[in-house]
């Protein structure tokens, strides 16, 4: 019996790699994001035997989240796997110089957006008495680094929500996994530094950062464990990264 995965933030980076990995492993894919062109193009990259559909919404907009998920034809509603991946950092400033619009974006997208999407999907899984939710946290969910303040707070919240989900949902046969990557080369830093390509590129120079496919491998491994196994919490760093603030770069 084929399974269906809904992946938020599938237009780029980790979410897109998860869509490709799960499609290649036979999952039908519901991809979501705001950039519709990319969601259309993704169909061409997925294996031909996989059924694919997409939903365009901003996770901050609860009404849009509800309407999009309600619009799914019945064939798509039996969602087995939810990957809560949509998110970004916005800015990287000392807390007293932080831009409140950036703070709003990170709390609204990374925390409230994840909750809005989950609120729609959890009842489906509870009805079926099965499901798997993977929340993409970060090493920033486990540690706080200089100028990471509110981004780290948003990801600590994701970690707490992940633990809370597991406590409340395990009795319904719903597995919950937190995946916490270190530095992964995606559009993440371009967004964080508001389009400053040089600054974004510098983050990943002088060492081999994680690739989105490395994280997708881990997500794929977690969701394909037998039903009696749950991977609860996976932290993964680049080989030359010792913690959130220590990377050994080539001289
Ligand atoms: P990218 O910028 O490459 O991808 C972010 C994705 O999130 C895009 O698909 C984007 O889609 C989506 N997204 C962002 N804001 C919204 C929104 N308001 N509504 C809907 N979708 C949104 O970054 P990554 O792939 O690196 O990030 C994915 C996740 O991984 C994030 O939660 C991030 O915090 C986390 N992470 C990243 C790490 C890294 O080093 N890169 C390390 C640890 C965790 P669109 O713009 O089309 O809406
Ligand atoms: C993204 C990785 O180190 O910038 O969550 O927080 S980091």
Can you give me a brief rundown of this structure?
This protein is α/β, with parallel strands linked by helices.
Description:
Belongs to the short-chain dehydrogenases/reductases (SDR) family. Helices cover 42% and strands 17% of the residues. It has eight helices and nine strands. It has a single domain (4-247), classed as Rossmann fold (3-Layer(aba) Sandwich). The protein is of the alpha/beta class. It binds NADPH dihydro-nicotinamide-adenine-dinucleotide phosphate and 2-hydroxyethylsulfonic acid. NADPH dihydro-nicotinamide-adenine-dinucleotide phosphate is lined by residues 9-15, 33-35, 58-60, 85-88, 109, 113, 136, 138, 181, 183-184, 186-188, 191. The site of NADPH dihydro-nicotinamide-adenine-dinucleotide phosphate (NDP) has 28 residues, from helix 1, helix 4 and helix 6.
